[in-house]
Write a structure and sequence with these properties.
two-stranded antiparallel sheet; TIM Barrel; eight-stranded parallel beta barrel; binds flavin mononucleotide
Length: 330
């Protein structure tokens, strides 16, 4: 069985990738994931705010620069609360490269153009096989229009793409007005792939103490559906690679993501819940499913459920929406 896939121009032994998470903080844990069958691994992110803080700190030491917005910066973790400092991150990346034979993808997280994007160059110098740029942002200002936000994001992506030779993937939010248009624009500025999608950790609040409580809940398979829809829409329209992130927990989830058009399948929650060995089980399940149906390679099945043959996906989606609402009778 040929489980090989091409993702970001890299040839991977199979589509199962460890998504950005704390696993790579520990070389032994990363080794276990590789031994269990993971074909590539994404490091946790280094954040724009973290790099800015370091760069400002250096300036403050030399020029006594004042903090421009002390209230806003007080919301963020203090510099030493981040798990990896930028220097530590680069050393960890070099350690991972020494210990692993699978590709290591380093992650930057931010959306505004700025000096922080130069870190991609350092990732490349430390041996990263690719860079994943996570554009997480929630726009709250009523005077900021969507095209303005996207223009800044595209400039940021172009800055990263232009400072490295390794491929750059962009981890997207599903909340763009026209995700397909934005993905195409990313392709045009040189991105090698998109990761669908960022997971938004919705904060809750307590009605007794009136405090906001952000908390991390691991995903389940229901979150995959949003990704499947967009993989199926994007797959026929893009030349670049597609990865899924969010809600992949079972062999069935993996098969669905591939049928919808994914080249790579990223997983985090399922690995945090069950440990690295679940990868071996999932790979065996994928092999078995393909064998039973006579598939010989991932390429044979990839994208066969995408919307390529659908002449008008917008009408198709709307028709399904209407049909679902009309199906309920009381
Ligand atoms: C503990 C934890 C840490 C994470 N850290 C990062 C990160 O640093 N950068 C990033 O892009 N995504 C990060 N993620 C998000 C995951 O990469 C992934 O997109 C998300 O968990 C959805 O995939 P899943 O359903 O397989 O968990 C993190 C997720 C978890 C659970």
């Amino acid at each position: 069985m040929n489980l090989k896939t091409h993702y970001l121009g890299l040839t991977l032994e199979n589509p199962l990738i460890v998504g950005a998470s704390p696993f790579c903080d520990n070389v032994a844990a990363a080794r276990q994931l590789q031994d269990a069958g993971a074909s590539a691994i994404v490091m946790r992110s280094l954040f724009e705010e973290q790099i800015d803080a370091e760069q400002k700190g250096l300036l403050q030491n030399t020029e006594g620069m004042a903090d421009s917005n002390p209230e806003a910066t007080s919301y963020f973790p203090s510099y030493n609360e981040y798990q990896l400092t930028p220097d530590h991150y680069l050393r960890q990346l070099a350690e991972l490269k020494k210990a692993l034979s699978i590709p290591v993808i380093a992650s930057l997280n931010g959306c505004r153009p700025g000096g922080w994007t130069d870190y991609a160059r350092r990732f490349e110098a430390a041996g990263a096989n690719a860079v994943e740029l996570n554009l997480y942002q929630l726009v709250t200002e009523s005077n900021v229009a969507g095209d303005q936000v996207e223009a800044e994001m595209l400039e940021t992506v172009a800055n990263v793409v232009n400072c490295v030779k390794v491929p750059v993937a962009v981890k997207l939010s599903p909340f763009h007005t026209s995700p397909a248009h934005f993905a195409k624009a990313l392709e045009n500025v040189g991105a090698a792939g998109v990761v669908t999608f960022n997971r938004f950790y919705q904060p809750d609040f307590n009605i007794d103490d009136l405090e906001v409580h952000p908390h991390l809940r691991l995903s389940d398979s229901s979150e995959l559906l949003l990704r499947l829809r967009w993989l199926a829409i994007l797959s026929p329209q893009l030349r670049m690679s597609l990865a899924v992130s969010g809600g992949v927990h079972t062999t069935e989830d993996i098969v669905k993501a591939l049928l919808a058009g994914a080249h790579g399948v990223q997983m985090v929650s399922v690995l945090l819940r069950h440990g690295p060995r679940i990868i071996t089980t999932l790979l065996a399940g994928l092999n078995h499913w393909m064998e039973e149906r006579g598939y010989e390679s991932i390429e044979q099945l990839r994208g066969s459920m995408n919307l390529k043959r659908c002449p008008d996906p917008t009408a198709f989606e709307r028709a399904n929406y209407i049909r679902i609402l009309q199906s309920w009778r009381v």
